[in-house]
Design a protein that fits this description.
By secondary structure, the protein is of the alpha/beta class. The protein has 14 helices and ten strands. Strands 5, 6, 7, 8, 9 and 10 form a six-stranded mixed sheet that branches. A four-stranded parallel sheet has the order 2-1-3-4, with helices on both faces. Helix 8 runs antiparallel to helix 9 and helix 9 runs parallel beside helix 14. It is globular.
């Protein structure tokens, strides 16, 4: 399964648990610090001693130095009008442009704990898959907030929670309500009538149709398919299942949308990826030439720009819509 589904787009090529070397079980001494291969982590603990040795302070009215461990959190902070509170971001946070200039703290696979501590954050925003990092930060008395971003409801809740942590709940209410209205507008503009059968492909083996992973209905992408006027060909409970060729043939999608978020694909490469589906000529989507390849970075980010994803899906279904 593509890593961006877990990182909520960071876009590494493989996935797995965050790799942070375990801290030693014994207390560091001067000799240990000089000779142990784990001395870097001991130094990190010592660098944090000023606050780890003291009781946790009462939460500030609003966080002023936030580290965002997922691009969606960075975009939410800026959309709330609090981009100035963002102190650090992941290697994959590149929107808005101001985020590109912020200090980097690694990504889902390689979070840089030392870099995070150096930024002296008063809040670190993480997704559930980063639970190990959250525990390490908590041990250092660094305040964290772990928020799910699996569904549209999760995204809306994240907007409100982040706004409260920033001391500006009104901005969260405004952003969430405006965002919902924009999504509802896409739904109203979607054509009436029978909903086309849609398959959103989020990963597969290169140059083949093996290990095809699709977005299920219980994901933000699946919800956006329905909102844009489509019907997901997969109706199971797994968020991102792998479908066999037989399963795809049986589902017979009328529209196939393949997503390669953030990849630098030219027109020829996109056309080649679409032609891979010619190996299943009986599919309705292949017969009607309704196989679409999308590579915009925002496709992987469950945040404010989900409205743009909904519009892109609607264009794929109807051939028209917002530019």
């Amino acid at each position: 399964m593509p890593c961006w589904l877990f990182t909520l787009a960071g876009r590494p090529e493989a996935f797995g648990p965050a790799l942070i070397t375990d801290l030693p079980n014994r207390r560091p001494t001067g000799q240990f610090l000089l000779r142990s291969p784990c001395s870097r982590w001991a130094l990190i603990v010592l660098a944090a001693a000023l606050w780890t040795a003291l009781p946790a302070a009462a939460p500030a009215p609003g966080a002023r130095r936030v580290v965002c461990m997922a691009p969606a959190f960075t975009e939410i902070c800026f959309a709330l009008g609090h981009g100035d509170a963002v102190a650090g971001v992941t290697d994959y946070c590149d929107f808005p442009d101001a985020a590109r200039r912020l200090p980097r703290v690694g990504g889902f696979l390689n979070p840089n704990l030392e870099a995070i501590i150096r930024l002296a954050p008063d809040l670190v925003l993480l997704v559930p898959e980063e639970a190990e990092l959250a525990q390490r930060l908590g041990a250092l008395r660094i305040r964290t907030e772990v928020l799910s971003l699996y569904t549209l409801a999760d995204i809306e809740r994240a907007m409100r929670v982040v706004a409260r942590r920033l001391g500006d709940p009104a901005a969260g209410e405004t952003l969430a309500r405006t965002w919902r209205r924009e999504l509802q507008a896409v739904a109203r503009e979607s054509p009436a009538g029978a909903a086309p059968r849609v398959m959103v492909v989020v990963g597969r083996n290169p140059s083949s149709l093996n290990n095809v992973f699709v977005a299920g209905p219980a994901t933000f992408l699946g919800e956006l398919v329905r909102l844009a006027g489509g019907r997901n060909v997969y109706q199971g409970k797994v968020r991102y299942p792998s479908l066999s060729l037989e399963g795809i043939a049986h589902a017979d999608p009328e529209v196939i949308v393949e997503m390669y978020p953030g990849m630098k694909l030219d027109a020829a490469q996109m056309a080649a990826l679409a032609r891979d589906w010619d190996r299943l000529p009986a599919l309705a989507a292949v017969r009607s030439r309704r196989v679409h390849v999308l590579a915009d970075a925002y496709l992987a980010i469950p945040g404010p720009r989900a409205v743009a994803i909904a519009r892109a899906l609607r264009r794929c279904m109807t051939g028209k819509g917002d530019p």
